[in-house]
Amino acid sequence: MSDAIKHECGIALIRLRKPYQYYIDKYETPMYAVHKLSVMMEKQVNRGQDGAGVANIKIEVPPGKRYISRYRSVEPQPLTDIFSKIHKKFRKGLKNHRDRAMDAKWLQENLAFTGEVWLGHLRYGTHGTNEVENCHPMLRQSNWRSRNLVMAGNFNMTNVDELFGKLVSLGQHPKEKVDTVTVMEKIGHFLDEENQRVFERFKGVYENPTLSDVIEDNIDLQRVLYRSCRDFDGGYAMCGLTGYGASFVIRDPAGIRPAYYYADDEVVVVASEKQAIKAAFNVDYDQILEITPGSALIVDKNGEYNEFPILPKLEKRSCSFERIYFSRGTDPNIYYERKQLGKLLIPQILKEIDYDLENTIFSYIPNTAETAFLGMIEGLEEYLAKKRKQAIMEGILFEEDLEKVLSFRPRIEKLVTKDVKSRTFITADALRDDMVSSVYDTTFEVVRKNVDTVVIIDDSIVRGTTLEKSILTMLDRLKPKKIVVASSAPQIRFPDCYGIDMSKMKDFVAFRAVLKLLEERDLDYLLEDVYTKSVTSIATKNPYHTNFVKALYEPFTDEEISQKIAEIIRPKDLNAEISVVFQTVENLHKACPEHLGDWYFTGNYPTQGGNKVVNKAFSNSYEGKLERAY
Ligand SMILES: O=P(O)(O)OC[C@H]1O[C@H](OP(=O)(O)OP(=O)(O)O)[C@H](O)[C@@H]1O
Ligand SMILES: NC(=O)CC[C@H](N)C(=O)O
């Protein structure tokens, strides 16, 4: 894993449970929460490079004073941009009021970002363009405090169009068709209705302004969330703050997207990755809990919190790609799982190199694959230990042979270096090819020319661009006899529709391999068949039952597809032989037993909407359309 750069969306929520003055006194700074939030966000930069945003709510400020503050940025270093602006605000605000720097009441009445509820977001867009307007947190404003809503999420819905249609059928007139706005408007609509319901209930009993407080005390967010989310189909960890300071994080019923929380008497915090909470608050890992799928963590206006069931749970299918690639590998469980992934590849790799360890060099593609590489080496050591034992048991007579067996070590080298600390995977398509070709460098004079085989491990092969445009050509200059690429993830065959931007069929090198195989074996009539079934199904009222695209992979074995992938990614002038070895789905599940979500490898989607998306992705590619299928 690179030390902190870029990927998918990340969330960070902090609720201060005590009065602001408490933190100023205890930590001797008015910026305790700013600091904690910035650490939590820095540690999740791996999740989003398109932009970032921070929102803050003050709970107890008098009418006429601003209580919601927000900064969003799409600058190249959005976090630096946002947090330096917040620091500047403090500096400016305190310039002529140094004596007020530790006075919570004065600060809250005069300075932004001095509230008790904080929401941070790192964006990697799956919907809409990369503009600041599409950065989270988004805001739904009203003059009634309890109707204000601030939202940010790591999510993607498969049925945004339907959700949008429902808003229109309710009589709303949304000004844009961005998924975050659609989801927020939906929740906002039911928050409005809940306000109205509580208002009707108490209007004869209390008068305003007391009535407003009564409404805030009686709003049932569990009910709001149930009514809003029951027709969501997707993967989500959605955070919301209400204008009166209550907050929530709801997680999808299959637990697709990650969401963790920690609470003590000072704070309640939520993040997409455990490691963000660990880094900011240094608590034990077992104190960091997972939000139960289908439930919401709700923190009320007074800072009391609990998990509430919202939707019926589905079979738990948490995203395994988080473990293979997205999340920070410093989380101890992820670290261990990545090592296992590397280790489990060993039998296939040994077969591929014909057990010839003397003439094989093992290496990896930086950065995420580094941990899997360590596991792979452990696997090799275990294999060698067995061989040694066997040799001794079988009784080798000559000292020289025994010496050789005992002292043999696998040849491990760092052949590839990554010059830029950034994730190419999530770089905009148009720039990616260029970036990939210039980002890596190689070590010369280690490989024995035309003798050695190089085994190089990567965490995943998606488009195959990293290999084709850079790694293979570079390695070939070292003149190995053969290059074996090992992928710690299985073949990526189907789109993701739950928050990872892998949505176009032709982007997948595995799919392009299958297209070639179909053509070569005169099976391409299957394409039309699948297309007809897909478009017919999409046109029906219930297009959710079957993933027809699976049928295109069925005629071929995994090995046949791997072989074809090797042919496709092979640069024109390559001299070395080349082969590709992929993790099996079975071993993936062995390595990551708590994260069984594998739809991009198997086509088994955890929500019905996934089938619609894959059929649509295929029909788009068949029709030559280069658009996302959701
Ligand atoms: O087959 P492709 O479509 O080219 O994508 C796969 C590559 O993209 C990622 O690297 P990235 O540079 O994003 O990140 P990393 O340094 O964290 O591994 C991943 O680790 C693979 O190397
Ligand atoms: N990766 C994500 O979670 C994306 C969130 C949301 N769909 C957006 O595009 O802004």
UniProtKB/TrEMBL annotation:
Q: Matching SUPFAM superfamilies, A to Z?
A: N-terminal nucleophile aminohydrolases (Ntn hydrolases) (SSF56235), PRTase-like (SSF53271)
Identify the residues that the record assigns to the Glutamine amidotransferase type-2 domain, covering every copy. Answer: 9-302
Identify the PROSITE patterns for this entry. GATASE_TYPE_2
Instruction: Spell out the protein name for this chain.
Output: Amidophosphoribosyltransferase
Entry's EC annotation:
2.4.2.14
Question: How would you classify this enzyme at the top EC level?
Answer: transferase
Which CDD domains is this protein grouped with? PRTases_typeI
Kindly state which keywords UniProt assigns to this record, in alphabetical order: Glutamine amidotransferase, Glycosyltransferase, Transferase
Record has Transferase as a keyword: yes
Its taxonomic path starts at: Bacteria, Pseudomonadati, Bacteroidota, Cytophagia, Cytophagales
Q: Which GO terms describe its molecular function?
A: amidophosphoribosyltransferase activity
The residue stretches assigned to a coiled coil in this entry are: none
